[in-house]
Design goal:
2 domains, 512 residues, UDP-N-acetylmuramoyl-L-alanine:D-glutamate ligase, alpha/beta, seven-stranded parallel sheet, 18 helices, Rossmann fold, nine-stranded mixed sheet
Amino acid sequence: MAEARPLSGQEVQVLEANAVAHGVSIDQLMDNAGHAVAEEARRHLPPPPAPVGIVCGLGNNGGDGLASASVLSALGYQPRLWLLADPSQIRSAAALRRWEMVRGLRYVRVGVPAAEELRGLPLIIDAMLGTGGTGEPREPYRSAVREITDSAVKVLSVDLPTGLGSPSALRADWTVALEVRKEGMDHPSCGAVEVRSIGMPEEAHRETGVGEFLLYPVPPPTTQKSDSGRVVVIGGGPYYGAPYLAGMGALRGGADMVFVLVPGSILDTVQGYSAQLIVRGVGTGRLFTVGDRDAVLSQIERIRPTAVLLGNGIGEAPTTLQFLEEVLEHMLPSTPCVVDADGLRLVSRRGEVSLPGQSPSRWLLTPNLREFAHLDGRSANPLTKPPTPEEVRRLAARLRATLLVKGPEDILSDGESTKLNRTHHPAMVAGGAGDVLAGLLTSLLARGLTPYQAGRLGSFWLGRTSLAAFEEVSYALLPEDLLARMGPALRRGLDEVRRLTDPGRPAPTGHA
C-alpha cells in the first residue's frame, strides 16, 4: 500500500518527514538521491572520463545534485559544477554538508553558467528547483534556465524540471523522480520519467506520522477574524452533548467561528455548555423534522460556512433522516462536509453520498466498524472481522467520498490512495471522542485541507493527544481530556517535525 497518485510538493515534505521519523536521516536520503541521479545520468553519458554539467540550486534539490557530483567523480567522470549563488545562501543543512564535500573538485563555479560554457557537454543535470519550487522561477534560476535552454544540451532533471508548470520552465529530456511521481509530470515537460527509490521505509508510505503536521495551515501574521474558517455543526436531538463536543473539537482545530444548529427545545442546554460556541435553535421540538429544512438552509446561506458537519447526536427517527436528506440535496453544492454518527445512516439508506451537481471531493465520512458494515452492506458481524484497506478503498471509490474508518487501526482512503493511522491509545473509546474528532476534521476542511489530508492529520493529531492524556489520567480518559490537550499536542507536533526535517535550520524545505 503506497501513494497511488503523484504527490504535490507539500505531500513530498510529509512523506520525507515520516521517513526521517522512522530513522532514515535527511543525509541518508540525500546520499541515496545522489546515487540514484548518478546511475540515471550514466545511462545517458559516454564512458568515463566524460564530462557532465551539474547546475545546483540552494535547497535540497541542489543538495541531491551535489551528492550526485561526488558519486560521478568517484566513478571517474569529470563533473563541471555550478552553484547558482554564494554557499552562505544554501538553505538546507544537509545540502551545505554536501557542498563541503565537493567544493574541492577540479571544476566548481559559483554563479549562473553561460550557454557557451555548457555547449559541447554530453549532459546537464538540472538540480536547481524541485518540489519546493512553485510559479515562475526567480533569479538566478530564471537566467540559468535560459542559458541551459540556449546551450541545446540534453537535460536530466532531478525530481522535477526547474519551473515546471510555468511558461519559462526548463524542458527536460529525462527526469529522475525520487521515490514517487510528482504532480504535473508530463512527457512534453519532463521527457522520459524514471522513478528511483531513495530508501524511504514502507511505513512512511503506508502510515500516518508526525509529517502530517506539515499539513496544518499555520495562519499568517495578517490573519483576521473568519480567515481560518467558519464551521456549521448540524446535530443534537436525543443527545445534547454530541454537538457541543463536535463544536469544541472544531474550535480546537483552529476554526475561527463555530455555529451549532440544534432543535429549538435544547438550545439553552447546549448553549449552557460553552459561551465560545454560537448556538442557534431551529423550530420548537426536540428533534429535527422535515419542516425545519428551510430554516436550516436559510441559516447556512447567511453564515456561508467553509465546512459543515452533519449527524452528531441527531438520532435516527425517520423524519429526522428525511430532514437530513433534504438538507443534503439543497445545501451549497461546493461546501466540504463531514458526515458522522447518525448522519451515516442516511448514507447507508441511500447507498450513495455524492448528489447530482455536487463534487465528490467534498465528502468525508467517519464510520466506526459497525457503521462501516452498514455502509458496505455487510451481513457479518463487523466487530469480528474489521475491513481490509482494500475493502475501504473500494467502498470509498463506490461512494465517491473519503472514508476514515475508526478501529484498532484507523483506515483512510479517498478511493485512490490509502493510509493507516496506528497512533492512538486504546483508552480513547469513551462516548464523545468521535464527536471531538469529527469537529476537528471539519475545522481542517474549513481551513482548506482536502478530506484525505484532514482525515490523516486529524486522526494522527487526536491520537497523539490521547497518548498524552493517558499519561495523566490513565483509563479514566474523557472527551474533555482530549479537548484540553489538543493545543499542546499540536505545538509539540509542529516543533518535532521542524526538528526532524532539517536539524540546524529554522524551517523545513522538503526534498526540494
